[in-house]
Specification:
This protein is an alpha/beta fold. It has a domain of 193 residues: NAD(P)-binding Rossmann-like Domain (Rossmann fold, 3-Layer(aba) Sandwich), CATH 3.40.50.720. Belongs to the NAD(P)-dependent epimerase/dehydratase family.
Length: 298
């Protein structure tokens, strides 16, 4: 049994990580912005503004740091906020833990596969970095902070998940946005979309959650950076077709909407490091992930 502190515990990924950790017998301190949210599986729920500081916690074995501004699109409108807040949360956590009781807990922080440069082949952890959004810049800053605090003596681990989908994902992401627009679409009307030609690597959020928990459970880790990815890229058109099929409707006519200033044409991840070291592999196929997202919508 581990004692885990999970930040952003009431968010899309956080709720799945808390539930899985509890299912595997761990005790969970859930950190949320307000402390008012119900987080199924958590033993304790604490409110904390992590941009202002790190709260006093009971003894813990590991921190899974998921709290962040995470939607890519809005980061173009608020670049300074994304960079400042995402960096501040990681820095406050690591600085406090560095100065706290020993042994310090392992810190597992969510970065993103969006910080890699585009490549025609699956991207592993050694690939060059390139930034197509302020969100990606903010996450690269978190990466750098974790590397710095690792040199200071903390056991830090950076996780770079590629796109993930499933139940509970909020607006600002392709799958929930397409589902919401299809639900609201008038018969015969065109569906407004962004760039559906872009290809991305999608993993079920439950499989992403498993990666975080496995990294917390491992007594020793061989590396300090791990990708989480399915190893297959799908275009936005494929995603839309899968959603329409699951909803039992035809793909509607499309009307092009706003596009991002920079949009990498194809991204696919290589998670062989995580697979080989911890035995992780995706358990949920793409169709079931889409069906779960549709079924869970309000």
């Amino acid at each position: 049994m581990l004692r885990l502190a999970i930040t952003g515990a009431d968010g899309f990924v956080g709720r799945h990580v808390v539930a899985l950790a509890a299912e595997r017998g761990h005790r969970v301190v859930a950190l949320t912005r307000s402390g008012d949210a119900s987080v199924p599986g958590a033993d304790v729920v604490l409110g904390a503004d992590l941009t202002a500081g790190w709260p006093a916690l009971p003894a813990i074995d590991a921190v899974v740091h998921l709290a962040a501004l995470a939607a890519v699109g809005p980061s173009f409108d608020e670049p300074a906020r994304y960079i400042a807040e995402n960096a501040a949360m990681a820095a406050h956590a690591c600085e406090s833990l560095l100065r706290g009781p020993r042994p310090a807990p392992r810190v597992i922080a969510a970065s993103t596969g969006a910080i890699y440069a585009a490549a025609p082949h699956p991207i592993d952890e050694s690939a060059p970095l390139e930034f197509a959004s302020p969100y990606a810049v903010s996450k690269a800053t978190v990466d750098s902070l974790l590397s710095y605090y690792r040199r200071r003596g903390l056991d830090t681990v950076v996780v770079r998940p590629f796109n993930h989908i499933g139940a509970g994902q909020g607006p600002g992401f392709l799958v929930p946005d397409l589902i919401a627009r299809l639900d609201a679409l008038e018969p015969g009307a065109p569906l407004q979309v962004g760039n559906l030609d872009a290809e991305r690597d999608y993993t079920d959020v439950r499989d992403v959650a498993l990666a975080y928990v496995l990294l917390a459970e491992a007594p020793v880790l061989e590396h300090d950076v791990y990708n989480v990815a399915s190893g297959r890229a799908r275009s936005g058109h494929e995603v839309l077709a899968a959603i329409c099929a699951a909803m039992g409707r035809e793909v509607p006519r499309l009307r092009a909407g706003r596009r991002r200033p920079l949009d990498v044409p194809r991204v696919v991840g290589d998670a062989r490091r995580l697979r080989g070291e911890l035995g992780w592999s995706p358990r949920f196929d793409f169709a079931s992930s889409i069906a779960t997202a549709i079924d869970a919508r309000v």
